[in-house]
Amino acid sequence: MLGNVVAAKRGKTTPAKGRRKKSIDEPTGNHKITDYFPVRRSSRKTTDQIKKETSLATEDAIITGSGEKDLKIIQIPTKGRGVVAARIFAKNEYVVEYKGELIDRVAAKKREEEYSQDSSVGCYMYYFDYKGKHYCVDATKESPYLGRLVNHSARKPNLKTKVIEIKSIPHLVLIAKRLIEVDEELLYDYGDRTRDAVENNPWLTES
Amino acid sequence: MFEAKLGSAALLKKIIDSIRDLVSDAPFDCSENALCLQAMDSSHVALVSLKLEVGLFETYRCDRTINLGISLANMAKALKCANNDDTCLIKYDDSETDNIVFCFVDTKRDKTQEVTVKLMDIDSEHLGIPDQDYACVVKMPSSEFQKVCRDLAMFSDSLNVTCTKANISFSGKGDTGGNVINYAPTASADDEDKKESVSIDLREPVNITFSIKYMNQFTKASGLCDTVKLSMSNDVPIVVEYDIEENGYLRFYLAPKIEDEEN
What we know:
Chain A is of the alpha+beta class. In chain A, 26% of the residues lie in helices and 26% in strands. Chain A folds into two domains: 2-35, no CATH class; 47-206, Beta-clip-like, CATH 2.170.270. Chain A is elongated and about 85 Å long. By secondary structure, chain B is of the alpha+beta class. Chain B is built from five helices and 19 strands. Chain B has helices at residues 9-19, 72-80, 142-152, 191-194, 212-218, and strands at 2-6, 25-30, 34-40, 46-53, 57-62, 66-71, 87-92, 99-106, 111-118, 126-127, 136-141, 158-164, 167-173, 178-183, 199-202, 206-211, 227-232, 238-243, 248-254. A nine-stranded antiparallel β-sheet of chain B has the order 6-2-3-4-19-18-17-11-15. A five-stranded antiparallel β-sheet of chain B has the order 5-1-7-8-9, covered by helices on one side. In chain B, strands 14-13-12-16 form a four-stranded antiparallel β-sheet. In chain B, α1 runs antiparallel to α2 (72-80). Chains A and B meet through β1 of A and β10 and α5 of B.
């Protein structure tokens, strides 16, 4: 009814010249399909929602360390220990945290000095900047967490690093760069190209 | 990874051409058992529901459930490139998430053509369609129904369906004229005649009015199936259904018109 009144009014103000353009988008006088069928908002999600949910899931995985069981340690002849995927990882999926002690740069330099005295100690220091601050994750100490055992590749890495802040503490995590198959070795670029490091560890650029 | 191959591109072409004026962008839900699509028109009066079951495809692979948002105009452009007899492979690769690829193969000439269409984000609402026992289910030749809608549209904006046990009547009346079309259900159970016959399965009489413009959009799908099925109850949306080679369907739901009190 209301629709008719409006249409009549419109007719007065605009003289009826020619035919009105036929348009399918003209629901006046028609019920909506949504009056009959309920909208199931839950089944389909917007991109923002999905983003939020994945980031929550990632946070959860970081806090609980639940992702560790999806990885396996293997022995590789020339490299020593390495980590392989125990399930398929999708592109951009969170894989593992590089877990260790989060320290500032000054403390890190000091520790590195100490570690270099002992040749049996490997290098497990990862330096990164986040929000203008320098940080370092020291994973030198043996731990059950597998992030520290992931090997390096400059040429063909399948992981990339990412910093995720949880409760104002930055966490250094490894994210799948592409689809990763089961039993594929996980590799990321350590990023260290300083001359000293490359001289002592030629694999930094060669692998 | 999603990969599905249709024996002939013509089928998909027909489907998309029959819905693209109603729905501009549509979310395709790919799952293990079927390729589905559900979308409303922009004014939320009509709903399109498409289901293509695995049986329709020559090969079908879907590793996980995915939603692909596609502009139907662009999809129609892609399908236009195909000859009707070409096979049509629909490909979506998880590592190449922005695009969907249509690969057409003309086996006679050993010609292949790959058309890439950009995907889009669609924030569409998914409707839960309740299972419903309809008061009246009519089956008739789809070309006949198409003609009914076309004829009524000449004078009227609306189509009234009145169905009793003995008779189904489609009518429309406008300022300049009117039109009434009656069918008595054909009793013949002969399979030969079934294609041509009008059958009524009635529990309760129905009297309901719809917008003819939408009906004329739906009947563009007449080429998909010889028979159209109309399921109706008073005061609920009608279902206009075209079967797709017994392995899927294209359904249109249309909400009834608000009846004028004067009539």
